[in-house]
Every structure is written in C-alpha cells, then in structure tokens.
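Lab notebook, bench 4. Still working through the backlog of constructs that have no structural model yet. Next entry is a single chain of 143 residues. Request: give me the structure tokens for it.
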Amino acid sequence: MIQQTRMVEDDNDHRTYTEYVIKVKFNGQSWTINQKYRSFCSLHDSLINQYPSLKFPDSSYQFAQRSIQDVGSGQHISSGTTQVEERMRNLENYLQDLALIPAIKESVQFKIFLGISQKFPEFCESFQSSLIPQDFGTSVNSS
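Model written out:
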C-alpha cells in the first residue's frame, strides 16, 4: 500500500523528485520502501519483457502513456488533486493488480521491487544475474 509521498533532492543535480512510500507486508513482517516513478516504469518494462504474452491489467495503461513531461510537475489535473496524488492512486492500483497475477506475484522482479529479496533472500533463490536490487532503485526501511 502506498502510504504517502515525499520530496527528495538529488545529491548530484539538486533537482527535486517524488518518492512513493510503500508499506509492504510479507511472511508476517512489514516494512516500507521508497520508489521513484521511474522505478515503477522499470518494473513494468521488465515484466513486459519477461511475460510478453501476459495480459496486463488496465492500471498498466499509464505506463504506455508516459513521457518526459510526466516526471511530476505537481500541476493540478482534476478536481483539485495534484499530479502526484493522482499518480499515487494509479500506482497503488497497479501494485494491487500485479499482486493478483500469480506469475507476477512470484516473479523475481516483483520481489526485488518490493524489497522482499533483501528481507527474505530465500524467497528469491532463482535470481538471475542480470537482476539486482539497484535495477529498480529499491531502498528498504524497517518498520
């Protein structure tokens, strides 16, 4: 579940970006992770490449529509909500939809994205050498 967002300043170029704070519950434990929108895009691209014949949920449509200008300007887009709030709701729906698909729920990519690989490496024994946690920018915070 995406609990909130937070604004972070990049150490290199001092640009501000949004991180989505996600509460993960797995195997009797819970923790939070922080992910950028770009990490969601990387996850989606990775899953599409891994499962080309799988029908992805309607909530994944947002990734087909992404562009450089979508990087979180915070502009108002509907009913007084900001782009970040709207995106947070859409990403929440996307994660919930992915968790309902058995192949994706058990995929290494999804487990890396959610930080399960760092908390429970035994659940990710089938790691592929090309997939490492940094691929999705996952940072895990204990709760």
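Notes after review: Residues 71-80, 127-134 have pLDDT under 50 and may be disordered. The domain at 2-140 is CATH 3.30.1520.10 (PX Domain). Flag for follow-up if needed.
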